[in-house]
Amino acid sequence: MGSAGRGSAPTGGAGPVSVGKTNHFVTFVATLAAVGGFLFGYDTGVISGVVVLVKSQWHLSSSMQEIVVSAVLIGAIIGAAVAGKLADHHGRRKVIIAAAVVFFVGSIGTGLSPSIEWLIAGRVVIGVAIGFASCVVPLYISEIAPPEHRGKLVSLNQLAITIGILGSYGIDRAFADVENGWRYMFFFGVIPALLLGIGMLFVPETPRWLVRRGLVDRARAVLVRAVGPSKADAELATLQAAMATGQSGSLRELLVPWLRPALIIGVGLMFFQQFTGINTVIYYAPTIFEMAGFDSASAAISATVIVGVVNVLFTVVSLWLIDRAGRKPLLYVGLAGMTLSLTVLGVAFAAQASLGALAKWVAVGSLMAYVAAFAISLGPIAWLIMSEIYPTNVRGTAMGIATLSNWAFNFIVAMTFLSLIDGLGRPGAFLLYAALGVAGLVFTRLYVPETKGVTLEHIEAHWRAGGRPIDLGRKPAL
Length: 478
Ligand code: BGC
Fold this sequence. Notes:
It is built from 21 helices and no strands. It has helices at 24-33, 35-58, 62-90, 92-111, 116-144, 150-175, 181-187, 190-201, 207-212, 216-227, 229-244, 251-254, 260-275, 278-291, 297-322, 327-350, 352-355, 358-376, 378-388, 395-447, 456-464. Helix 6 (150-175) crosses helix 19 (378-388). The chain is globular, with a radius of gyration of 22 Å. Beta-D-glucopyranose binds at residues 44, 158, 161-162, 165, 273, 278-279, 282, 311, 379, 383, 406, 410.
């Protein structure tokens, strides 16, 4: 296993490094960038409250409601498709600022919507900002973080996503009985967007992107603040050496054989993150609770809020463990927990008639366990590993592909969930997600590398040398 105990190589060195204290500057910029994650979560969750109100105000059919809910996913697919390329060309920081501007405009635009068509278009625009943020925030943080704290710092983004989802439930409740309350639900997004956009004007670009652009003095100045003056020069030399072997970042160059494992890992983790069904819970939790026997909508919604709280709390647990236990142990425990709880949920639906009132409590318990297991594993780790495994020169473009696949998979699951339940029945649908959890365990065993404490440059050298994914972080430095 892991590495923290093994070495205390300088951060610029090849192998794993020891765990020290997190530097305040890096924690500050990572937290600020993670406001992008808050907006991702907030705008994901807010629509559940909005749709209830606009459907009665504008008499929407159920297919129209589905379009209102899923428009954001279309935007996110578009945003993710261009975010990585933009980040490689213009820098990571500028794309986060662009995301903040789009969030700002989208929040005002949707809040002012004169018609349902306008609202849908506004949601596509917000989706573009989500697509930008979901790709570039982890990218920015991973490139500025020291390796021994990278897991925790990048996962601040996931923590912010879960807080954003929970915050949106709170705002939705606060404005649910206010006239035109849905407009305020959207307007609220303006506050974090301003914070993100203005804040990012005052923080630096990542040292890795600066080196790539030949802006060595600026890169050194950032490194002095990020890793301290004593280590800055050694770190800079490592970045320059890695960059010297680099490519220009075109799509064709991404397809070189030695990068293939990294592409498969990135897209594979996104596949399992989405196809084990997390967003059926995030988007449809009240529906699932009603299916399980809660007869009032408000009881089902309260249970949903508890799901949101569990999601936040267990993400905190994950942040604490991720640089200590490592990524793979958490994935094993989390995927096993998700599989088990989905199986219990499926069986509870199958035995609903005989379980009677007990069924709904089994449903609540197993959904809580499922969300907790997701929150310690695939939630943060899919985004984290995606931000770690690609070489600097193609990192933006490659992360764009993984992010795009995440949103495309998310869209497919969201669009098929209710028909899956019609086709396979409730037990069948959840047992199918459980089976995909088992496949996720096999994938983790065979393909997922342990990146705990390993420098990004070492990861790149490992691929170049034709190393196998599962040997990463296991063997001594190349
Ligand atoms: C996923 C989202 C999900 C969220 C829930 C994120 O990591 O990408 O699809 O809604 O976690 O916390």
